[in-house]
Amino acid sequence: MHRSSSMSPLSPHIMLNAVYTPSPMLYIRSELNKNSDIRALELTELLTQLGPSFIKVGQSLSIRTDLLSPAYVRGLKTLEDQVPPFDTNEARRMIEEELGKPVDAIFSEFR
Asked: Rounded to an integer, what is the distance from CA 66 to the centroid of its chain?
């Protein structure tokens, strides 16, 4: 198709806007990064409240720098050495409740 000489190209202003307008994904990423440290801390607190199994999941994820942002890795690393202790008597009670037998009948040693 032959282009008519009466058609003018797009104005430079429109072209600049088309080229330099940030993408929605860049905007979203920058907004998410603003609070990433706070959200990582909230995730760590949530996993701690959910108990030992979730803490272990968080500990495992803390080394996955290929999956998580640096803020989440930093937050989850606190689960490696800043975890509240888990009461041994509570653990004993849970084991006995789940397995239906006294701990001493199941394990030769339990500390």
From this structure: 12
